[in-house]
Amino acid sequence: MEVIVKPTYDEVSKLAAGMIAEFLRCKPRAVLGFATGSTPLGTYKELIRLHREEGLDFSQAVTFNLDEYIGLPKDNDQSYHYFMWENLFKHINVLEANVHIPDGMSEDLHRHCLEYEEEIFDHGGLDVQLLGIGSNGHIAFNEPGSSLGSRTRIKTLDEKTRQDNARFFKSIDEVPRYCLTMGIGTILEAEKLILLANGANKAEAVQKTVEGPITASVPASAIQLHPNATVIVDKAASGKLTRKYPGAPAMLDL
Ligand code: F6R
């Protein structure tokens, strides 16, 4: 696993966007896995800039999102459909037909999950998957205790996740209790993983992910098994790491 510490969130975002852009330039039909939440917003902003100012072309790209709440229609401003169109897709030239986000309103959620897996497979698998991390160590909505071999499925959101995400809703009572999420097994099959974290509230989860044992109690620690995973964190999120990493504060003399 490669761990890169950057002084600021802005630099984390620019590095991540640059890596995704490089992938896309080398492989215009790349299958890109995207995440939602606050963390990737800077990366999406930079991808939009690269599209507008440097002609980064998404016209052949295929995208798959990690997860979606159950019970929120696509036009609900807290759905991940809405998030992705508002914060990325409507600003770039990706084709709507090439965008895949789990449908939390599907009439047959179990079948939908199986079909989502099949669609990823039919597109040749994920080339690169962008990940955030929950303060409880989740990736996508694979909450602590999730099977490290899990596939796309229905999950119950951890109370910690509901509390963390309540900031986006009027009250915690409005935060959905269930979601659809790619599994850890699904994520680990991507060719390349890029996990981002910023802020001191992620420092403990980052330390456990990078330096702790691989355990379902910290689902993100499963990325230690991946042969091509890069973790990019800002100074605050690196605060509890005990080893030295490229660009780590001690080396940068920040
Ligand atoms: C969302 C997702 C989640 C978030 C995580 C961090 O698609 O996969 O795992 O990445 O909850 O969320 P933020 O970035 O809002 O702190």
Describe this structure as you would to a colleague.
This protein has helices at residues 9-26, 41-54, 80-87, 109-122, 159-165, 184-188, 203-211, 249-252, and strands at residues 2-6, 31-34, 62-65, 67-69, 99-100, 128-131, 153-156, 178-181, 192-197, 229-234. Strands 1-10-9-6-2-3-5 form a seven-stranded parallel β-sheet, sandwiched between helices. A three-stranded antiparallel β-sheet has the order 4-8-7. The protein is an alpha/beta fold. The chain has a single domain (2-234), classed as Rossmann fold (3-Layer(aba) Sandwich), CATH 3.40.50.1360. Strand 9, helix 7 and strand 10 (229-234) form a beta-alpha-beta unit. Bound molecules: fructose -6-phosphate. Fructose -6-phosphate binds next to loops.
Describe this structure in a few short sentences.
The chain has 8 helices and 10 strands. With 254 residues, the protein is α/β, with parallel strands linked by helices. The strands form 2 sheets. A 7-stranded parallel sheet has the order 1-10-9-6-2-3-5, with helices on both faces. A 3-stranded antiparallel sheet has the order 4-8-7.
